[in-house]
């Protein structure tokens, strides 16, 4: 009766040894024959934000590793740790014929050769590694002087509006005014309308297929339907207030100020003004740079009701019923300073505050400030983003974004004269996005 027990014990011992033997066999590196890469990544680095998310193509047939989407121009690739992955364990890996371990960083501003030797040491694979990076600064701009406008009179105020397909340029001096348009690169302009109404063109808005503006004294509102410009301006009387400027549109609601409050006029109905909630102080009454985006209106700088120049940034909340400050007040270095007569545009997810009268001298400036967070913090534009030397410092210019470029028109120069030139500036980033 004891023999079956011995046999059973022997069988159990053999079964227990099988997994151990099998595991030991799998860990034998000499059994691995595939030297190829399965994937390739780069480790995170505070020198190159988001670089760990870069996707690399591993082409085993061509022996190439590369990223289809180029890495940001500003990323520092000189000391990055690579992270290769494999189908099987390899005996060795070398970069440029030098042995590599997992803690070695490399300079990826140049092309490397990767050599992998299979676990059995009988096969190897070689790849060319090309970490592609943008060679052109996406935040540099090329500025071009387009043809100047000759309205037949000396304009003192300017407006620049677009519906996405056509760029409209308004110029006025009291009761003399004109509107021209272009659908191309600004070298050829077509006359739209010559008029004699006294219109404040700097705050004019384009919405719903037409241009809405106020008279210079704010007592009259005007509307020009662009599908029938020959019909001229139609007028209405805003009640029960006299306005000083339009500040923007949200959907079909126009927002305007009388210098001390913001009023809303629904669907172009100028006979019913809805007063917004009490405004924060100090709040701009005139001369603020206006920008509308993300279904909100933003006001930068300007002067308050007493004529004091401001360094403020405000935004609508709750469909324009409330206004709130968006400026970081913790440190002055994030502010653009006191600024009047500037213009603002929202371009490629950034706000650009252009020109105006400087804080220190009160004279026009060529300075551009950039905000990447809708006006909470600001940086001075530097390098190629700065306006070209041929661009004269000015205030009261008009600006908009048309066909992925910033367009600037007109303005008042340091000597008090006005200019009618038109400039186009295009960031390299715009072309990267289109591609």
Provide a descriptive summary of the structure in words.
The chain is mainly β and 435 residues long. It has two domains: 102 residues, Immunoglobulin-like; 212 residues. Strand 24 and strand 25 form a beta hairpin.
Helix content: under 10%
Average pLDDT taken over every residue: 87
Q: Tally the helices: what do you get?
A: 2
The gyration radius over C-alpha positions equals 32 Å
Strand tally is 32
Strand order of the largest sheet: 2-3-8-7-5-6
- Count of discrete structural domains: 2
Strand content: 35-45%
How many angstroms separate the termini? 84 Å
Contiguous low-pLDDT stretches (5 residues minimum) are none
Query: What's the shape?
Result: elongated
Question: What structural category do the secondary elements indicate?
Answer: mainly beta
Largest sheet report: 6 strands, mixed
What characteristics describe this protein?
435 residues, mainly beta, Immunoglobulin-like, four-stranded antiparallel beta sheet, 2 helices, 7% helix, elongated
Topology diagram in text:
Blueprint lengths: L1 H25 L10 E6 L14 E3 L4 E3 L15 E5 L3 E6 L2 E2 L12 E7 L5 E7 L10 E6 L10 E6 L4 E7 L2 E7 L7 E6 L3 E9 L2 E6 L5 E5 L8 E3 L8 E6 L2 E5 L4 E5 L6 E3 L13 E5 L2 E5 L12 E5 L4 E4 L17 E5 L2 E5 L13 E4 L7 E2 L17 E5 L2 E5 L12 E6 H7 L1
Parallel strand pairs: 3-8
Antiparallel strand pairs: 1-4, 2-3, 5-6, 5-7, 7-8, 9-32, 10-11, 11-12, 12-13, 14-15, 15-16, 16-17, 18-19, 19-20, 20-21, 22-23, 23-24, 24-25, 26-27, 27-28, 28-29, 30-31, 31-32
């Amino acid at each position: 009766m004891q023999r079956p027990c011995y046999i059973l014990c022997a069988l159990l011992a053999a079964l227990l040894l099988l997994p151990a033997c099998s595991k030991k066999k799998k860990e034998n590196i000499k059994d691995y024959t595939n030297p190829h890469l399965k994937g390739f990544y780069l480790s995170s680095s505070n020198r190159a934000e988001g670089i760990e998310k870069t996707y690399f193509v591993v082409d085993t047939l061509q022996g190439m590793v590369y990223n289809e989407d180029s890495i940001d121009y500003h990323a520092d690739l000189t000391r990055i740790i690579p992270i290769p992955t494999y189908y099987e364990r390899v005996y060795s890996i070398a970069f440029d014929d030098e042995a590599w371990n997992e803690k070695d960083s490399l300079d990826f501003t140049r092309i490397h050769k990767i050599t992998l030797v299979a676990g059995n040491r009988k096969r190897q694979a070689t790849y060319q590694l090309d970490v592609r990076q943008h060679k052109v600064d996406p935040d540099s701009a090329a500025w071009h002087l387009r043809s100047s406008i000759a309205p037949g009179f000396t304009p003192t105020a300017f407006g620049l509006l677009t519906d996405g397909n056509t760029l409209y340029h308004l110029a006025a001096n009291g009761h003399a005014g004109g509107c021209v348009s272009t659908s191309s690169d600004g070298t050829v302009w077509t006359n739209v309308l010559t008029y004699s109404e006294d219109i404040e063109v700097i705050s004019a808005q384009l919405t719903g297929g037409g241009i809405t503006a106020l008279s210079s004294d704010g007592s009259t509102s005007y509307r020009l339907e662009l599908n029938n410009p020959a019909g001229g301006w139609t007028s209405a009387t805003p009640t029960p207030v006299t306005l000083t400027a339009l500040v923007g549109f949200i959907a079909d609601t126009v927002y305007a100020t009388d210098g001390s409050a913001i009023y809303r006029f629904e669907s172009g109905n100028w006979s019913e003004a809805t007063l917004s909630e009490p405004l924060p102080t100090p709040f701009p009454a005139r001369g603020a740079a206006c920008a509308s985006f993300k279904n909100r209106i933003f006001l930068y700088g300007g002067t308050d009701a007493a004529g004091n120049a401001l360094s403020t940034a405000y935004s609508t909340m709750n469909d324009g019923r409330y206004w709130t400050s968006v400026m970081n007040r913790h440190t002055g270095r994030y502010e653009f300073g006191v600024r009047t007569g500037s213009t603002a545009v929202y371009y490629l997810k950034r706000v650009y505050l252009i020109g105006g009268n400087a804080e220190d001298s009160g004279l026009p400036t060529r300075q551009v400030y950039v905000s990447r967070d809708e006006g909470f913090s600001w940086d001075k534009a530097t390098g190629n983003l700065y306006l070209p030397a041929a661009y004269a410092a000015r205030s009261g210019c008009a600006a908009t974004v048309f066909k992925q470029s910033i367009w600037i028109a007109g303005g008042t120069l340091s000597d008090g004269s006005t200019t009618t030139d038109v400039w186009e500036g295009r960031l390299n980033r715009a072309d990267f996005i289109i591609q």
